Amino acid sequence: MRKVFFLFYLLTFLPISLFAQTQISQYRPGVTTDGAIYYLPKTAIRISVLVEKTTYQPGDFAHYAKRYLRLNDVAQEPMVSYRVLSIAQVPFAMADTTKAYAVKFNARTVAANVALADDGRLLAINAEPAEAPQMATPFLPAPKKPMVNPRQFMSEEILAAGSTTKMAELTAREIYDLRENRNLLIKGQADFMPQDGAQMKLMLSQLDEQDRALTSLFAGTVERDTTEQVLVVIPSAPVTHEVLFRLSQVAGMVDADDLSGTPYYINIEDLQTVPPIDKEAAAKVKKKQYEAGIYVNVPGRMRVAIYQGIDLVQTIDLPAPQFGNVELLSADLFNKRYTTHLWLNQLTGAVERLEAEQPK
């Protein structure tokens, strides 16, 4: 058995646009014993935006931060702020319902096995379709450490103090004692020195934890949470300076028309990698719509750029069937002497691989 390669197909295909509009509504993508209805794909973009929320909570002794710990500009009121950490763009295929085609199996050719995706996109003929591209993994935030209650490190003297001012003063002294003990431990001058490096590391860690917990009573606590916001863009034409989303520093991601947020813009440029079809050629193609063949995409490419104001955040070039052409590939050279196997690119709908087997 030998293999030969062609750019032709076994089946007789008719574009669904040739049916009356009343008939089109009666059809759905699928395969029967008589034929199949399928879609070609278009490229959509999954835009993942990681947004960090920062929550500041002032400590119980915030008013005494400068007096006792020489901490300047410590905020006295709770605050919440948001910022964008990263933006990622991942293309994926979806059915282009404007490119729907019907195929009727021809008795003069080898019966075909048509493989469709769940949404009706043509994947393969007489072949097992390639494994579908993996979708982007949803963002999973890292586990957060539980907040430490600083009062568990307060001495009996601090807890028994009769006023907040006195508690703040005694807590500041405790902090300075912890720092002094840490320095003595590092210098090897502490009264109780560790026996080995592991014990030394443990003692320093405990001193640091107590220092941070008690200092938070003056400096306050900062908690950060990261969430993923997913936007789906389905380009149908080039766009320039279109608002993708807005980010408010106090409310997070808001609607594109909410002027309280800073705008993030998107530009979609047709790179015009596929020459346009002239009118004469289009007329000839229209006349051939009843000829045997299959419709496949000749994808173009697009450049997607995201801006924060006038600052470029990210740009990426992607295949774009919607900025390309559709081509009819003739089946005139095929007959029962060949078994043809066809694979289409699942993202673009272009011919990815074609094999024709000729039996002995």
Low-confidence stretches: 1-26
Q: What is the SS-derived class?
A: alpha+beta
Shape descriptor: elongated
Number of strands: 15
Strand order of the largest sheet: 1-15-14-7-6
Topology order in helix (H) and strand (E) letters: EEHEEHEEEHHHEEEEHEEEE
Major sheet details? 5 strands, antiparallel
Number of helices: 6
Descriptive keywords:
42% strand, elongated, disordered N terminus, single chain, alpha+beta, five-stranded antiparallel beta sheet, 360 residues, 6 helices
Topology:
Layout: E1 2-4, E2 12-15, H1 21-24, E3 30-31, E4 35-57, H2 65-69, E5 79-104, E6 114-116, E7 122-125, H3 156-159, H4 164-187, H5 197-219, E8 221-233, E9 239-248, E10 252-254, E11 262-270, H6 279-287, E12 293-308, E13 311-330, E14 339-344, E15 351-358
Antiparallel strand pairs: 1-15, 2-5, 3-4, 4-5, 4-8, 6-7, 7-14, 9-10, 9-11, 11-12, 12-13, 14-15
Helix pairs in contact: 4-5
What does this 3D model show about the protein?
By secondary structure, the chain is an alpha+beta fold. It has a domain at 2-50 and 85-141 and 225-358. It has six helices and 15 strands. The chain has helices spanning 21-24, 65-69, 156-159, 164-187, 197-219, 279-287, and strands at 2-4, 12-15, 30-31, 35-57, 79-104, 114-116, 122-125, 221-233, 239-248, 252-254, 262-270, 293-308, 311-330, 339-344, 351-358. The strands form three sheets. It has a five-stranded antiparallel beta sheet with strand order 1-15-14-7-6, with no helix packed on it. Strands 2, 3, 4, 5 and 8 form a five-stranded antiparallel beta sheet that branches. Strand 3 (30-31) and strand 4 form a beta hairpin. Helix 4 runs antiparallel to helix 5. The N and C termini lie close together (6 Å).
